[in-house]
Amino acid sequence: MASVVNPRTHHPGFFCADCDVDTYVNQHYYMLKNRVWKLIAPDDPNVMLCLPCAERRLGRGLSRDDFRRAPVNKGQARVCRELAERLRRKP
User: Fold this and answer.
1) N or C: which end of the chain has fewer CB within 10 A?
2) How many distinct structural domains can be found in the chain?
3) Considering only CA atoms, which of 55, 41, 59, 47 is closest in space to residue 17?
């Protein structure tokens, strides 16, 4: 019998701080440039935010210039259509 996975137990740090969506399930994990992250999460640099909540806090849509050139972004863009769209978006 397969065991039931409780996301709160197995990956508790992946829940969006604003809307509580499970970013592990929807693949919304990424790395922004430090200057951008400081604008949206000045008090808690370790907070997790889904893409729409990050954009809401920023007050605009994310574009490719907002993201760090990090392997996680390239890898996640292969499985997360929303991230791939933002990485292609011009400022």
Assistant:
1) N
2) 1
3) 47
Domain with 32, as residue range(s), is: 13-88
Two tokens, residue 43? 């008090």
**Residue 85 identity:** E
Residues 6-15: pLDDT tens digits? 767 777 778 9
Which pLDDT tens digits describe the chain residue by residue (91 residues)? 556 667 677 777 789 999 999 998 889 889 999 999 999 999 988 899 999 999 999 999 999 999 999 999 999 999 999 999 999 999 9
Residue 66: inside a domain = yes
Is residue 8 assigned to a domain? no
Residue 57: other Cβ atoms inside 10 A: 14
Give the per-residue pLDDT at 59: 98
Residue 7, in any domain of the structure = no
Question: Tokens standing for 16?
Answer: 């969006």
Tokens of 20: 């509580």
